[in-house]
Design a protein that fits this description.
Order of helices and strands of chain B: HHHH
Helix content of chain A: over 70%
Order of helices and strands of chain A: HHHHHHEEHHHHH
Distance between the termini of chain B: 42 Å
Radius of gyration of chain A: 18 Å
Structural class of chain A: mainly alpha
Largest sheet of chain B: none
Distance between the termini of chain A: 20 Å
Oligomer: heterodimer
Number of strands of chain B: 0
Strand order of the largest sheet of chain A: 1-2
Radius of gyration of chain B: 19 Å
Largest sheet of chain A: 2 strands, antiparallel
Strand content of chain B: under 5%
Number of helices of chain A: 11
Chain lengths: ~280, ~130
């Protein structure tokens, strides 16, 4: 395959991944690495480098749209970013030293977890929880717009959430993904932050988290311009188109279909990692 | 409390727009580099199956600037990617100023910690 053919094909694939990722809210990054390694036979380190770059593009690119909705909580984001960035640096160091088989296996497990998490029915938001002392001191409690005024919430279990965020950052640095599902899990499930606030704040955190491992990725030579270029341009275009469509569209079948694709890719990554083909 | 919420929002909207502009600008730089790279190397075979690591000049900020200045496609692409990495970092810096304006010392400190961590990661690749 020539470089031109490869670039066009990878760009098209990345565009679809970015589009579907934005439409389903599951993020395109999680399918990019399997797509590049399984289909295009790219080494997983280069794939992670290109994916990491595209994660920053989608996070920063969507920031304006998310902010306008008024859900994201910048204080929660900043406080938890201390955990995610430290985790990301740890994960990026790890990525340079563990075998590609191990990375593929962890990747497979993360894919299966993401699919499971996205198909799980959302727990009803618990209202009027008592304020937590640490959360109050850190000024994490907030409010968000709701039909007929605004609703306030009290953040719970700060240390648990912070620790989960360190793990989320570590996975982001190890695999070159945004690990949005894990971030939402930490905020929504552990810290009892309303789902809408969790997802938008997570998007805001993804870019900063990825930026923390980018320097190390560059130093280790994971970021190949010939690969990162079509991936970044494709994913960015796809996610921008997706964000436009999203306002009018809530495709349940697409979400289900994409979850099935993620499961299939997860099994394939696990199998490839265990048999040593990646 | 009301005023502080409003300030947060105003700042966030501004930062969001800035980030979007930064992403589009870096994408334009990557695209420019892509055209040069594809014109010069488009017909060569691709070799990404095995990991060799990038050449030294494409791994450091200094090397990338050097290659971009002489108009090398791969150098310009990497420069665009560096600009992209800078967008979330710019967001963190602007947030420090935002919190300082609100006299929220605790969050000036916490956000500065995030900034120092990001700086550490970037400095390894100077």
């Amino acid at each position: 395959m020539t470089i031109l053919e490869f670039s066009v094909l990878v760009c098209a694939g990345s565009l679809v991944a970015g589009l579907v990722g934005a439409l389903t809210g599951l993020g395109g990054g999680v399918v990019l690495v399997p797509l590049l390694t399984l289909l295009f036979k790219v080494d997983i380190h280069y794939a992670a480098g290109a994916s990491l770059v595209s994660v920053i593009a989608t996070s920063s690119g969507a920031a304006a749209a998310y902010v306008r909705e008024g859900f994201s909580n910048i204080r929660i984001g900043m406080f938890l970013e201390i955990a995610t960035t430290l985790g990301a640096i740890f994960g990026a160091h790890l990525a340079a030293h563990v075998s590609t088989h191990a990375i593929a296996i962890v990747f497979g497990l993360v894919l299966l977890f993401s699919a499971y998490f996205s198909s799980k029915p959302r727990t009803q938001a618990q209202r009027s929880l008592p304020p937590d002392r640490l959360a109050t001191r850190l000024r994490l409690n907030g409010q968000f717009p709701e039909a007929g005024g605004s609703r306030s919430y009290n953040v719970q279990k700060v240390p648990t959430g912070w620790s989960l965020m360190f793990v989320a950052g570590g996975l982001s640095g190890l695999l070159g993904i945004g690990s949005g599902a894990m971030k939402v899990l930490a905020m929504d499930q552990a810290m009892k932050i309303p789902f809408k606030v969790s997802t938008t704040t997570s998007n805001f955190m993804i870019g900063v988290t990825a930026a923390a491992s980018a320097g190390l990725y560059l130093k280790h030579g994971f970021i190949d311009p010939g690969l990162a270029m079509p991936v970044m341009l494709g994913v960015l275009a796809g996610s921008l188109i997706g964000a436009r469509l999203l306002i009018h569209l809530h495709p349940k079948w697409l979400r289900l279909g994409f979850s099935l694709v993620i499961v299939a890719l997860g099994i394939e990554m696990l199998y490839s990692g265990i048999t040593g083909r990646i | 409390m009301k005023a502080s919420v409003w300030n947060d929002e105003k700042l966030e909207v501004l930062v969001g727009k800035l980030l979007q502009a930064g992403v589009l600008f870096s994408a334009a730089v990557v695209f420019l580099g892509a055209i040069i790279y594809l014109i010069r190397h488009g017909t060569e075979p691709i070799t990404l199956g095995a990991f060799h690591g990038e050449p030294y000049d494409l791994r450091t900020i200094r090397g990338i600037l050097k290659l971009a200045r002489v108009g090398r496609g791969r150098g310009i692409i990497q420069l665009g990617l560096l600009l992209l990495v800078a967008t979330p970092i710019a967001r963190v810096i602007l947030s420090i100023f935002g919190f300082a304006k609100e006299r929220d010392h605790l969050y000036v400190a916490l956000t500065s910690v995030v900034f120092v961590i990001l700086l550490y990661s970037l400095l390894v690749s100077v």
